[in-house]
Amino acid sequence: MTLMKTMKRFFVKTLTLALLLAAAVRAQNSAALSASNLEPSKAAAYKFEVDFDSQVTQSSRFEIVFPSAFNVSQAMMAVSEKLDGNLTVTVDSTIVTLRRSGGRNAIAANETIDFTIASIINPAQPDQEWEFSFILTTGQTAVEKKVSTKMTLF
What's phi and psi for 58, nearest 5 deg? Predict the structure, then answer.
């Protein structure tokens, strides 16, 4: 009987730990990246899906910090299915900033938001894991999320 109880406790603790680790990994990697094509050094549209621990308001600003292997200098247009209003794109080195205007909806914390940005030049070797930083700024508060992910096609 004692061996059975010990094995049962061990199994329950192991399962609990595995579920906690899986939840932590999902929370850490709560972003997805896909591209319209993965041809090296060619232009593509990039779609990001990310959630933030803070609410997104009508005046929120988003910064996406690309790895230096990407050429974002030609980024010119962004759209979102989740966010209403317009998104204005500005580029500074490897940072693409999206500013909302005319939007009326707020997005609750931890809800997934999507951005599709046109005219990003793929890296010379796109088939690897990349780290992106997403920064949500609302008023004077900035929340940053770093995510490592591989690109997929959409």
Answer: -65, -25
Least Cα distance to 49 among 116, 95, 94, 96 occurs for 116
Contact 62, 75 (CB under 8 A): no
Q: Which amino acid is at 74?
A: Q
Q: Hey, which residues does 141 pair with through a beta bridge?
A: 138
**Among 5-9, 58-62, 88-92, the least confident range:** 5-9
Spell out the residues 6+ positions from residue 5 whose beta carbon is closer than 8 angstroms to its own.
none
CA nearest neighbour of 146 among 61, 66, 47, 45: 66
Query: What span, in angstroms and rounded, lies between the C-alpha atoms of 59 and 49?
Result: 19
Tell me the β-bridge partners of 130: 149
pTM, full prediction: 0.79
Please provide residue 84's backbone torsions phi and psi, each rounded to the nearest 5 degrees.
Answer: -85, 175
Cα angle 111-35-148, degrees, rounded to a multiple of 5: 60
Q: Report the CATH fold assignment for 31-153.
A: Immunoglobulin-like (2.60.40)
pLDDT digits (tens, 9 = 90+) for 12-50: 454 444 434 433 333 444 688 999 999 999 999 999 999
